[in-house]
Specification:
binds adenosine monophosphate, six-stranded mixed beta sheet, binds zinc ion, Rossmann fold, alpha/beta, 13 helices, globular, two-stranded antiparallel ribbon
Amino acid sequence: MKCRVCRGPAVIDIRRHNANFCQEHFLRYCRTQVEKTLKEFSMVKPGDRVLVAVSGGKDSLAVWDILLHLGYEATGLYVGLGLGEYYDVSGRHARRFAEERGLELIEVDIRGTYDIDVPTAASVTGRAPCSACGLSKRHVFDQATLAGDFDALVTGHNLDDEAAVLFGNVLHWQSDYLGRQQPVLPAGHGFPKKVKPLVRLGERETAAYCVLAGIDYLVEECPMAKGNKHLHYKAALNLIESESPGSKQAFYFGFLRNAVDLFSEQRTYSEPEEQRERTEPDDDVGMLRACEECGATTNSELCAFCRLVRSTAGTKPVPIAMTRKRN
Ligand code: AMP
Ligand code: ZN
Ligand code: ZN
């Protein structure tokens, strides 16, 4: 196996591109793919200040590292969701990455700030844990990006994530979600710009990037995500991809090229993009106004997050093991 660029010994093959790379040229390939994505979708431009949501996993640490390599001023944001040991470990990875490079990492712990955590909120409200988690993260992401006056909020969603979410949204014809499934959401209606610069890289590539760039990341998946439908969609797409490399990329980028505009009319800003599961209708289309509690855009008196806080704060914390597996 020889590197496509230098013909030296390759360390990784990318079947969908029919290409092999040595360490140096693989790292360069990843950075070039991100640079191309940033330009193609007008995500961020040189000189922009970005806030990178980092979970301590491979994707978000890779995208933070790549943005720094590309010359961006990138601050990290870590959200403590109160998931016990898993989150202690994930926070340590995010912190260590920042400390080793002298970077700023903003930390928001939802237990300390709002007196809630994900297992307790899920248990009290009957929401799926991933839904309570997604809602809390999006709220903190929005507020921190606006408060820090950043040009964009960056997440580590990769090609596998986006293809799996698209697959689920198509299976159920979630037309509102389909309209929002873009790698960049512009700022507007009180929401900051949100971008996903890793959509051209698969998760095998982001993991390899971290290993080859010497980035120590949290390997385990979140304990509460077990049984999440999203994981089944990923497995189904992996089966197709192994028989026919390039299928995921063709599916996702074909959707962006040919179909997303057909759904964008139905898009709303009130319940942002990454929601994968939901057990109750949140803020659907309607009159938008400011949440009475936090000022976020919503169509009712309180935004979905503040409603979650209202019902959960003050109740006795529920350990993970007690949470119903309802994903
Ligand atoms: P997930 O929803 O867990 O698949 O994560 C998607 C993206 O959200 C990650 O790539 C990160 O950019 C971001 N993210 C997930 N968990 C956290 C967290 N605890 N703190 C900050 N960002 C996070
Ligand atoms: Zn090479
Ligand atoms: Zn609110």
